[in-house]
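Blackboard transcription, Thursday session:
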Amino acid sequence: MQNMLRDRQDAQGHMFHDYFKGEEAYEIVERDDGYFDYGNPALYFAQYNDWAEAERKAVNRVRGRVLDIGCGAGRHSLYLQEQGFDVVGIDNSPLAVETCKLRGLRDVRLLPINDISPELGVFDTVLMLGNNFGLFGSIDGGRRLLRRLERITSSDAAIIGETLDPHNTVVPEHLEYHKFNKRRGRLPGQVRIRVRYKKYVTPWFDYLFVSKEEMLDLLKGTGWRAKEFIDGEGPIYIAMIAKSNGEVPGGPVT
Amino acid sequence: MQNMLRDRQDAQGHMFHDYFKGEEAYEIVERDDGYFDYGNPALYFAQYNDWAEAERKAVNRVRGRVLDIGCGAGRHSLYLQEQGFDVVGIDNSPLAVETCKLRGLRDVRLLPINDISPELGVFDTVLMLGNNFGLFGSIDGGRRLLRRLERITSSDAAIIGETLDPHNTVVPEHLEYHKFNKRRGRLPGQVRIRVRYKKYVTPWFDYLFVSKEEMLDLLKGTGWRAKEFIDGEGPIYIAMIAKSNGEVPGGPVT
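(Written on the board underneath:)
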């Protein structure tokens, strides 16, 4: 979702906001091959103890000033804020930002990933958990953004990015979709989707799932290098990405 | 859903079948104004003790030979079969029928509501719970079907039909939809929907929600008359409908 969303487009934001108010809510994801999926809003509000082990491990590697890209309802940012970190959450959804504020996140900004600029200051950790590595969207767009992130981060900064290996599936509809993507010159896991909730619907946007190999390729020439992978359940993994000459922070892996 | 569904159209059936196999499943309902809703498949498998009180009361009024129209995953039919009733379940979804068979329902047939005929034999109770009064679809179609049901039922038969009063809402999108329906000459609660699950999608079909007044009007000239309403939660109610000269069965209202 590359642009700031208007209210009618703010499907996820309305879902977050309704769920936060205690109303029934649900996330519907439509893929451009007509595949419809459902998402449970509770996941976006899960507390640290309910996160997958890989996410808990990854968050324990955070240090310094943090940029949480696509902060959603703020589950990672709020946890880090509690731990004393200086966190800036950004999202392109007005009601996601509003929900984060209502939940007590102090620095959250309405900002699409493409509008990230040096005005935000310098960061030591860039957080893209919850599959948010996918926000890079494409090889070209991703490389452009990675180079931009390189310029607004400290020399020993890390990007902590979560995705899943799209090839690690036996679901016929997904395998068929990968072929469809290859035929039209896209990465197999470059899904084109839009989110729906009630009558709210986002514009179509690209969300990128990559294998470890594909990620290594994507990072080439960007000034970043994957140093370590934290494997999650099934196809899920989290990449610890450092600057080409830097090292990823170690730390208490619990 | 007036016709027998082909496999690619059998969204609910695939949902039932997957859920029964223990897989994640979900129901997505798309209305023709672009409103998307979510349904929890667990509701279709709920056991008697988890049903709403109105449904438990209504089911206790069943007697004789039963036709369960739109039997779905079989929750009502299976309960009645256990209680010793002679039940025929019908549905236009091949995988709903298959799921009912797997769950042990002895007489379940792949049959759209429009294909109900005297070949099924004579019934004492026609069950349309779980909003299935809506399967009548429209005033004209409903009256046609009601007259047909009149001919294949005993003189003291009852239709037990559940719906909800669509006017009993404050949801702006629904109120707007009622106006949209009135402008195009439809009953406010005559929703045009299709069900989606993964890449499965039913054809568009009409599903009818009526107030008690609208129901009384619909029944005119059909040989049927609403004798009693069992109020459920919020806008939900269940009508006990008898033949014009008959009475609805009383019985243990628990």
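Lecturer's comment: Helices of chain A lie at 11-20, 53-59, 75-82, 94-102, 139-151, 172-183, 212-219.
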